[in-house]
């Protein structure tokens, strides 16, 4: 939605020649919008216009540039973005749009190659009235040079990815784009996850398991299908607007506090080890000095030392044993709760079979010396969800010998706590936890901001007009995925 609204506002400026404020007002007035989303659209539109003022000689082009009948099943090829041409038509520029993070993440070579090729050889065509229909392409235009640029709407940056003759674009496509395009057309693999909600096959796809009542709610059959994870419900619990703005994929402040980064680094270390392991982790597999973490987690020596001590205790609770089979590391599962009208996304750290029965393992890191006495199903919503999933046999196999395992790694030891999903009392507790978190979320359609202490660590506070005035956090305490990694135990 943010991108569509941004494109609508830009269309009004570039094709209808409306002043930017007027264009924004008319686009934002068409439907009720969250004020955080409106703030982002205004920022993005102005950022784009200011960064692209450097090319005033280029004229906006409404029609798409489409290459047809390419080869091997690739019948139509085009690139999504904003299109421009010089007054004589000899130069074309395609601007690819990204909400944020342009400096951190490069476009793939295939993306650039396809963008350059379609800008060079694409024939103009309006978007088909029905999306399944072919483009009705017009006559070829004489083009000699193409530019492909990337524009970051958050930071207001423009970077040229390709600038050359059309023959160079053809050579680039041959080198980097052709095979990738054919692979896309012939791809058969299904990877359930965050994209399922947008997929037209979601209601018929075997990868999405039907699970009516998984969230413990009464029926909301008339409600619109939504997607949710335990992290989403946590964000919602913090502040409904914080959850909603992240769901819209508004750019986040990607900074994790040290405890969360230790948790991420420990998880990644174990993930790699388990993916390559042929048996249980040994003490010799654990780091021997503080150089172990991936630099991306930016752990200083003290933090690396804490993580190293946590990992020391993992071999005593490692899930890989002789009877372990069907190991799945960080696999994403999607369940369709047809009562709640929700796609429930779950990504366990590990699932595996022990003598045929499924075991669901979650790992938490904490610097607390000891756990409090609270029940793990009540304390950790991920454990509650895992208990509900295994308790219904949604992964298949026998339920009565399956289990949920919570591994807690501390600098001074490790705990392994088991939950029996076939125990009706555990199931009752699990459903009570899920219901308590999910019901207000399912019934909310406005996602009002709840400013307060949460604003200090809110990843989307930049877009929130209600953000409480607080000092900027010295370092984020627990944000985004990090909040799932380290928890009080
Ligand atoms: S800044 Fe505060 S009020 Fe706004 S979304 Fe974030 S937590 Fe909620
Ligand atoms: Zn292990």
From TrEMBL:
The keyword ATP-binding applies. Residues 463-489 are annotated as: Disordered. The keyword DNA repair applies. Pfam families: PDDEXK_1. Keywords: ATP-binding, DNA damage, DNA repair, Helicase, Hydrolase, Nucleotide-binding. Residues 227-465 form the PD-(D/E)XK endonuclease-like domain. This is PD-(D/E)XK nuclease family protein.
